[in-house]
Amino acid sequence: MPNGTRKTHRESPGSVGIVGKEYFTFAAHPDELELESGARLGPVTLAYETYGSLNADRSNAVLVFHALSGDSHCAGRYTPDDEKPGWWEVMVGPGKGVDTDRFFVICVNVIGGCMGSTGPASIHPKTKKPYGLAFPVISIRDMVAAQRHLIDHLEIEVLHGVIGGSMGGMQALQWAIDYPERAKSAVLLATTPRLSPQGIAFDQVGRQAIINDPNFAGGDYYGKQPPEMGLAVARMIGHITYLSDEAMHEKFGRRLKEKDKGYAYNFDVEFEVEGYLEHQGVSFNKRFDANSYLYITKAINYFNPQAYHATLAEAFRGVRSKFLVVSFTSDWLYPSYQSKEMARALMAAGAPVSFLELDTPHGHDSFLLQNDELSGIVRDFFANV
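Request: output the structure for the sequence above.
Response:
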């Protein structure tokens, strides 16, 4: 019996408190998960966390999807001493946008990731060594298909809602397309039905930085020196795209780290923005696997529900969910015009859609930051589904 009714501790107001990671394994041989590419993957383990309580008829579950570098830990802390809570602590918790006083919240690490779910660092059942680049290429649809097995395992027939931002929004949209009877609502934040050529280009530069790192070794670097410089450069490039020009001006300006010394006239890190990016790159190496970065960015690049349809509306023809689409004025990576196109196509397909463009200065990362207006919009939307 799944422990979907487990309650989490609550240590401070507005937090789900101390939480723990759980695991679910399925798709053992000969019933491997068939991927969009035609390859098969199994066994598959998913790492996930749950917050709040599942009600008696199992109708109050909300599935949260993470973005590229996220994981299943979206709220609470593992120990009282944790310096940082989950990545969406501002949105998930009692009384918040995804209200754990009302809903049983589930967040799953995607396949291809490196935070407990099966990915390139996992052991290949045939070779008994880490997959590396022998791991099959995955898609957003594959991520969602794997998560559907977990929802079945938790004996949840219909989700109250699915929600995510950026790549998480792609998963929410794919869930609404592939399992139209199993999600009453879908919240799509700072996302797009297809990444722009500019976004694909940034991802390719990041992947090339990793692949051309001398320590990459064809992806077979486990137990050796990993391609830290390549992954750090990829993270720095990515992080630039998550911020807006206005946010960078406000946060760093042209300030020097040691302003009293003036210019050093060499290639050391001098500007505050340079130091910030360097810190982001170094810290990313402590928690992320370079091969996962390759696979997940490729899945983002491939995402395109319209690929096998004449129009985007045609791709959405079978959806049954009620939708909330939110974009941010300063998001130049997933700009508002893409969200508007998605909302118009959903409406053309007959879906009920609410669209909002929020005026924020923080760029693509706006959906991750404290925003009482956004939290209120999400809370009211879910309350009225």
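Residues 1-10 have pLDDT under 50 and may be disordered.
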